[in-house]
Write a structure and sequence with these properties.
It is a single chain. By secondary structure, the protein is α+β, with helices and mostly antiparallel strands. The protein has four helices and eight strands. The chain has a single domain, classed as Cytidine Deaminase, domain 2 (3-Layer(aba) Sandwich), CATH 3.40.140. A six-stranded mixed beta sheet has the order 2-1-3-6-7-8. A two-stranded antiparallel ribbon has the order 4-5. The radius of gyration is 15 Å and the shape is globular. The two termini are 24 Å apart. 28% of the residues are buried. The mean pLDDT is 93.
């Protein structure tokens, strides 16, 4: 699976625009056509309303509103598009797929979208410093790194 460079540039700009908070969203596609879906990070709201359950704010975590996600999924189904990737940024940290990221993308130990890439963008001092892509590996039962590069 290859993400178009124009789509990556949009995602990178979004990550910079959302700094110092994490950004999040999805990439969908059909054939050669790809679209980016920027999603609101509702982590600050969750942290404010339920701090004991959500000790982290949007500077160190993200959460896509499930209602917003379901609207996107319904639109994609109608247009016969697939989810190609999910993305989020890490602020002032490296690009890695954390245990929390794994938990967010899996249900009962399996991903809801096993063919989707998981893109993590590192943003440091309002600049893209790194990006890594992860993909579900059924054999190992884990996400593995499939692409990594520096944009320093």
């Amino acid at each position: 699976m290859r993400i178009n460079n124009d789509i990556l540039d949009e995602i990178f700009q979004h990550a910079i625009d959302k700094y110092p908070e994490e950004c999040c969203g999805m990439v969908s596609g059909k054939g050669d056509i790809q679209r980016v879906h920027f999603c609101a990070n509702i982590q600050n709201k969750l942290h404010q309303e339920y701090p004991e359950l959500n000790p982290r704010d949007a500077k160190t975590a993200y959460q896509i509103d499930r209602i917003e996600a379901e609207r996107i999924f319904a639109s994609l189904k109608k247009n016969q598009e697939d989810i190609i990737a999910f993305f989020h940024s890490h602020i002032e940290h490296d690009a890695y797929f954390s245990d929390i990221d794994v938990a967010a993308q899996t249900v009962f130990g399996e991903p809801e979208f096993p063919n989707a890439l998981q893109i993590v963008i590192s943003v440091k001092k309002r600049k893209i410093s790194d990006m890594k892509c992860f993909k579900w590996d059924k054999a190992s039962g884990d996400f593995i790194t499939v692409v990594s590069f520096d944009r320093v």
